[in-house]
Specification:
Blueprint (H helix, E strand, L loop, with lengths): L15 E4 L3 H11 L3 E6 L13 E5 L8 H13 L7 E6 L1 H13 L5 E6 L2 H7 L7 E3 L2 E5 L7 E4 L1 H5 L3 H18 L1 H8 L3 H5 L2 H21 L14 H11 L3 H20 L5 H11 L11 H9 L4 E2 L2 E9 L2 E8 H13 L5
Helix pairs in contact: 2-3, 4-6, 6-7, 6-11, 10-11, 10-13, 11-12, 13-14
Bound molecules: nicotinamide-adenine-dinucleotide.
Length: 352
């Protein structure tokens, strides 16, 4: 073999994350920056947004139903109908399901057009909107089709986030707890001393916590945008969490909360039981309206789901464990060993 040339492509990509006081400020920003825009908006949020008849809007249902081939097709059709060219722009307004769908379409339509995200849930603000991972579900499996493609802007309205229903906030707090567990012992300690109601009751404190999560995630993405290494730690609780979400129909955050508990039990087995990690997680979850139990836990069903997980590599899976609060580590665990651990969890009723 004779090499002719070897080259590296560096794609320029910049994401601005900003706070806005109201919708008018966001709309004015988008209108100044882009000429032709498709607004893709979660139906539940649409009544809040003062767009007018000059704006092109596609209203869709929030939730995973829209993260599908059908959702993909209707969005591509809307873009084609308005003859959006490569200077066009899409704005996703909604939770993670909307930004996952929009990000995926933006990355493939005309080989990539720019998009912005206005997160309307806490989960999407501190997690899903950042980092460029997107996708749709396929044949009952989460995020089977997707790309990594960064948004140009993420803008949020603190008022909107603070007034979300408790259940929606709880989903976001699961990810906030995760940042504490994997990266920030101080944040975890603050969360342990408080609860969901107290934190959202103090807007300054709530914003500080949100901003620290934004900084944590964006620092990791800058370092490892394509999840070759460091970024994997953000998947803490997600291997089991995604399986629980798909099988038992729990929301993302609630399933991740249980996944974090499982992973802490496993960390104790692997790194030593004196860590008391699982006990701490079991204590903190209810304070943030997150469940600590499932009605059923089937090791076989969970294992079957994990077989299709993107974190699996042949006979091993990249599994995130905690060495201690604030420090995570990625271990390659053989799949047959993981099955043994799942069997222990079922037998010892870790989650029932
Ligand atoms: N790309 C990533 O890195 C990433 C990370 C985490 C989660 N996700 C994905 O995000 C999705 C979950 O996202 P989510 O929890 O943000 O919500 P979602 O988009 O699934 O919406 C959940 C529900 O909340 C409603 N909703 C949205 N905004 C609301 C508001 N302001 N007030 C009241 N109701 C509102 C929606 O209509 C829907 O019924 C999953 O599909 C998950 O796979 C992606």
């Amino acid at each position: 073999m004779k090499a002719i040339q070897q080259y590296t492509v560096i794609r320029k990509s910049e994401t601005l994350i900003a706070e806005a006081e109201n919708w008018e400020e966001i709309i004015a920003f988008i209108r100044t920056k882009y000429v032709k825009v498709l607004w893709v908006i979660d139906k539940k949020v649409r009544p809040l947004i003062p767009l007018d008849s000059h704006d092109t809007i596609l209203e869709i249902d929030g939730g995973d139903k829209s993260k599908s081939f059908a959702g993909f097709e209707s969005l591509v059709k809307a873009l084609a109908d308005m003859e959006l060219d490569r200077t066009g722009h899409i704005v996703a307004v909604g939770g993670g399901s909307i930004s996952d769908l929009v990000g995926y379409v933006a990355s493939v339509y005309l080989r990539g057009i720019s998009f912005s995200i206005i997160p309307s849930t806490l989960l999407s603000l501190i997690d899903a909107s950042m980092g460029g991972k997107n996708g749709i579900n396929y044949v009952g499996k989460k995020n089977q089709l997707g790309t990594i493609y960064q948004p140009s802007t993420i803008i949020y309205i603190p008022e909107l986030i603070a007034h979300l229903p408790i259940d929606e906030l709880a989903d976001g707090f699961a990810e906030i707890i995760k940042y504490g567990l994997i990266l920030d012992q101080g944040l975890f300690a603050k969360l342990e001393e408080s609860n969901l109601e107290k934190i959202i009751g103090n807007q300054v404190r709530f914003s500080e916590i949100i901003n620290s999560c934004i900084i944590h995630k964006s620092n990791i993405i800058k370092e490892d945008p394509f999840e070759y290494d460091l970024r994997r730690i953000l998947n803490y609780g997600h291997t089991i969490g995604h399986a629980i979400e798909s099988i038992y129909g729990l929301s993302h955050g609630k399933a991740v909360g249980l996944g974090m508990y499982f992973s802490a039990k496993l960390s104790e087995i692997i790194y030593g039981s004196e860590l008391q990690l699982a006990k701490k997680i079991r204590q903190i979850l209810p304070a943030y309206h997150l469940p600590i139990r499932l009605e059923v836990f089937s090791a076989n069903d969970i294992f079957e789901k994990i077989i299709s997980d993107k974190k699996r590599e042949n006979d091993n899976i990249h599994f995130v464990l905690l060495e201690k609060i604030g420090r995570a580590h990625v271990e390659k665990i053989p799949m047959d060993r993981l099955m043994e651990y799942l069997n222990i969890a079922e037998r010892e009723k870790w989650m029932c």
